[in-house]
Amino acid sequence: MIDTDVCEEGLKVDRYFRSYAGLDALKPEAKILFTLGSRGPLAVKQLMLYSGLSYRGFYIVVNRLTALGLIETYQDKDDGRVRRIKLVPRPPGGRSSHDGQGGGPAK
Asked: Which domain holds residue 74?
C-alpha cells in the first residue's frame, strides 16, 4: 500500500511551491495519486477540486491512471449518482502487470 506520510509530504511540498512561487511542484498524476493516498477514496467531484485541474484535464489524467492500473472508479454504494475513485492495491515492490506499457519508459 502507498505510504500515507509520503503522500502528505508530497502535497505539502506542492502547496509550499504554489504559495512561494506560484508553481506546482507535482505533475497532475502525482497530485491525484498523493491525494488519494493521503485521504483515501474520494468522490470524483472532490478529487477534481483537490487536483485544481479543468474538467477535461482531470479526466485525461484519470483515464491515463486508470489505464495504467493505478486507480479505479466505482459507484458509491449509498448514492448511485456518485462515482468514487480509489487507489488500486499494488503488489510488493509497487509493480503491476501494466508496467512498461503505455505512457512512460519501460522499467
From this structure: 4-87
Q: Is position 98 within any domain?
A: no
Tell me the CATH number at 12: 1.10.10.10
Burial class of 94 by CB neighbour count within 10 A (0 to 12, 13 to 18, 19+)? exposed
Q: Is 41 within the bounds of a domain?
A: yes
Grid coordinates representing 102 are: 503505455
Reading the block at residue 7, the C-alpha cell is 503522500
pLDDT one-digit tens code per residue, 81-92: 999 999 999 876
pLDDT digits (tens, 9 = 90+) for 52-79: 999 999 999 999 999 999 999 999 999 9
- Residue 71, judged by CB atoms within 10 A of its CB (0-12, 13-18, 19+), counts as buried
pTM for this entry: 0.82
